[in-house]
Every structure is written in structure tokens, then in C-alpha cells.
Amino acid sequence: MGTTLSLPRPKGAHRVIADSPPNGHVDSRGSGRRKLRIAFVAYRGNMNSGGQGIYLWFLAREMARMGHEVHVLVGPPYPDEMPWASVDELPNQQFWAKWVLDQTDQIVPKDNPLQTLSPLNFYELAASRIGFLPEPFAFSVRAFRRMSELLRAGRKFDIVHDVQCLGYGLLGLKALGLPVVTTVHHPLTVDRRASFVRDETLKDAVGTMKFYPIGMQAFVARRLDTVFTSSEVSGRQIIQDFGIRPDRLQNVRNGLDVELFSPNPQVEKQENSLLCVGRSTDPNKGIRTLIQALAKLPKKVTLILVDDNSPDNQVRNWAREVGVLDRLTLTGRVESDELVRLYRAASVVVVPSRYEGFGLPAVEAMACGTPVVATRAGALTEVMQLTEGGVLAERDDPESIAAGIRTLLENTEARVLMAKRGRERVVETLSWPRVAAATADVYQELVARSRRGRPTITMTSESRGN
Q1: More confident residue, 238 or 34
Q2: How do strand 390-393 and strand 4-5 relate by DSSP bridges?
């Protein structure tokens, strides 16, 4: 199969939204807009617990920089400090994690064992014990309760932004008269299909069916005011799998911290060094195909894989089968600073995925000034065409991926050109200020529409005597 090499072409000007003054009320076009009171809800808030934690932290920060008032309701593991927002940490007993980690001796809290019998706690305990993921539903109910308390106490909110929870409690917030939006980077149906690929027994398949709360998420998503997503591919998947009306969907893309992920000329490029960030346990990441592609490249080409480095990682067996184990390095978990250094030092970053709702490693690499070989899978084609910072190869095709890598390794001029262009385009189109400005525009439209259509006095009304 062939490999596509992007060639330079003129691009139009793209405006980058700078940080707004703390009290400035501006939108992405710079015109005056009203200051909004935004409530974010996220059932897991820590950056290490998944992409929703990263999305929450940076989007909330940018909204505060734009002058909006930000309140965050969040479940454990909790986010890093958010000094620019008021934060409500909504506790749960994390029963599901304790079952998975075999921490059964910690399930019943010793200091207050009776709290396990409270309705939501008992539901989470029972649901997690039989294989369901109870957190999204339970968190949404807790968020609804807390928001109701705040409203009764006189707090006012203009809009609620859910970060990939989609629990039934969000419908309660809509019933209070609040516009509610959500972000879905890709529907859980994608993860469920990947899980079925991994399953080896009927018991595994039944576990997959029980685990993902797809029915609830689809039901709730269809009833919210807007669903944000990060790519056209994800949008089509959400429409197909969740039944969302196309006019309710907004693709504002995903954001990146282009200050952290940035080039550094002092970091020396390692010749013939490939980097891949992806879990071998996730079939969608295509790691086995990349190992097969490595075997088709000269022996001087090496691969650093940011993945679990335990002895039982199956990627070692794949590398041994094709004779490249001595050319493979597993890093284990790395901190952000080390990840940035790895991106900067690599000659080429490879993203061999079978599906991506956005393709964050590709964008991070280009922001760090390193060209990318990515497969035509999910949103990767869209991202690569937008940024023009690398080469596209065919999905599940070791020959095509190897050809793309070879094209860049053998052409220093193309690598330098793509590195420069990829960085520029990521900053112009995918930086957090740009994404936040586009998101805030949608907020403003929904709030204006809500105010035109709502009763004169509601729980969130600013009318005297509320």
C-alpha cells in the first residue's frame, strides 16, 4: 500500500487567541460578551486518570482567563490545584477501583462502616461487585444534589458543562432550568468494540457488555443542549452510535498546552530513533503492527515505546517473534517533562492506531517540533491534513508504515520542513485559547437562547426576590 507525503502549500491566516485580561469579557472575535458563570462537572478529575482530567483542567483555566466565573464539581481522583476556580470535591468510596486492584480489605471504611449502607454508596458497592461501572451515574446524582444546594443558597449559574460523564443526574440539572452541554471525545461504543477484540472467553464478553454504561450515556446525550466533540470522525460516530441530532453537535476540536509541548533546540535529535506513545493492551493503538513495521526497517532504527515496562508486557513477545527485541525500549510510565523530552529527541513519532477520536500523541509530537507518521484511522487523517506535520500510512499495514518512516528518516529536509509547519499549525488551530474561545461562543449562544425562552423567575433567575 502507498504512503502519502504532504507537500508544502500556502495557508491562510489563522488568528491565535491570546490570554484575556482577568476581567475582560471577550469572545473569539474580540467583541464584548457578558461574563458567564460556568459549572463544570467531571466524575474523575485527575490528569493521570484519563483525557477528561486534562480537558477539564485546561478548559476551565482558559475560561477563567477569559474572565468567566468557574465552579468545578469533581469526583476522585481529584484534579491538581485550580486556584482560579471554586472547586467542590464530591467524594465516593471508589469501590470499583478497589475490586479491580484486589483491595477488598479496604472496601468497608473502618472509621465509619455504616456509610457503606447509604443509598448511593450501596449502589456503587453492589454494581461494581457484579461488574458494572457505577461512577458516572452515582457522580451525576451527587452533582445534581450539590448544584441544588448551591442554587438554594443563592448561587447562580448560566451553564453546566459535563465532561464525558453523561449520567442521569444531568437531566435533573436541565429540569432546574440550566442549559447543559457535554463533551464526548468518542462514544463508549468504540471502547466496547475494542474490549470485545481483547476478550478471549464468553465470560470476558459478558463482562464487557455489563461494564460500559452506553444505554445511559446515549439516552442522556440525546437530551442535552449541545454535545461537543473533537473531530468530524468522532462526530459521525456519536451521531451513529448515540443517535444525536446533527444540529446538536459542535466540533470545537481538542486543545493542547503549546507552552509545555514545544520545541527546544538544545535537545539533540537522536538519529534513527522512533517514538510511540500507546498501550499495547489496547488493540486500537496498533502497537503490534508497529513492531512488525520495525522489523522491515534497517537495524540501526530503534523504537522507544511509552508503555508498561513490566516483564509480562506482551509487546516483548511480539518483538521477539520478529527479531527486534534488542531494538525496543519500554519506558514505563513517564512524567510530563520526560514525555516532552522524548518527543523532542525523537527523529520521528509514529502513531499506528486502528482508531483515534482525536490523536493527541500526534499533536503533542508536532507541537514539540517532531514530524509524525500516522495511520489513516479515525480522526488521524483529519488531524494530519489540518496540521501537515507528517506522513499518512495505511492502517494495519506494516509495509506502509515502514515506508512512511523510511521516507522521513531518509529525507532530512522534509523532516525539518514538516517539523516547522506542524508546530505552527498546531499553535494556530489547536492551542487551548483557540479551543476555549470557540467553546465560549457556543456557551453564549445557548445562554442567550435560554434567557429568551425561560420563565421570568426560575431558580437561576437574577430577578429581584429570587
Answers
A1: 238
A2: antiparallel
